[in-house]
Design brief:
about 150 residues; mainly alpha; two-stranded parallel ribbon; 6 helices; 2 strands; elongated
Length: about 150
C-alpha cells in the first residue's frame, strides 16, 4: 500500500490560497512529488511483473505451442488458452481481461513491436486499439492505483 498524508494547501481548488505561506507551499509540493514517485514506482513494479511473466506458457507448454504452431494455428487449443492466460492479447476479444489497464496496453505494444521487428525487421501491420478499450484501460488503471493508496490525516 502507498500511504500518503492529506494536505489541502498545495492546490488552489482545495484551500484559501491567499493564506498559504511559501514554506507551506514548498512542503506540500515536496510531499506531492514524493507521492507521485511512489505511484510511479508502483506502476514500474507492475510493468516489471508483466515483463517477468510475459508469454511464459510458450516455455512451460512448449509442446502445446509447437503442436498448434506446426498447423499454422489451424489447431488452436494452446492458442485459445494462451490468449486467456496472458493479459496482452488486446486485439482479440477473448484476450481482453475485464480489468484491462494501461500496463496491459504497454505489454501489448511491446509485444507487437518486438515481434514485428524481431521477425520481419519492420512493422508491417497496424498496431491499434479501439478508443473504448483505451478508455476502459485508463479507468481501470485509475481504480488500480487508487486501490493501493491510503490517505492519512
Amino acid at each position: 500500500m502507498i500511504e500518503i498524508t492529506k494536505t489541502a494547501v498545495g492546490d488552489t481548488r482545495t484551500c484559501d490560497y491567499t493564506q498559504v505561506t511559501e514554506d507551506q507551499l514548498l512542503a506540500a509540493s515536496k510531499q506531492h512529488i514524493h507521492d507521485v514517485h511512489r505511484a510511479l514506482a508502483f506502476f514500474t513494479s507492475r510493468i516489471m511483473h508483466a515483463a517477468t511473466i510475459h508469454d511464459l506458457d510458450k516455455i512451460s507448454d512448449i509442446a502445446g505451442f509447437h503442436r498448434d504452431f506446426v498447423t499454422g494455428f489451424a489447431q488452436t487449443e494452446w492458442w485459445d488458452a494462451h490468449r486467456k492466460l496472458n493479459r496482452h492479447h488486446l486485439n482479440a476479444e477473448d484476450g481482453i481481461p475485464e480489468d484491462v489497464n494501461l500496463i496491459d496496453v504497454l505489454d501489448y505494444v511491446a509485444d507487437c513491436v518486438m515481434a514485428a521487428l524481431g521477425r520481419k525487421g519492420e512493422i508491417t501491420f497496424p498496431i491499434e486499439l479501439p478508443g473504448a478499450l483505451l478508455e476502459r484501460a485508463l479507468e481501470n488503471t485509475v481504480k488500480l492505483l487508487a486501490s493501493q493508496v491510503v490517505v492519512r490525516g
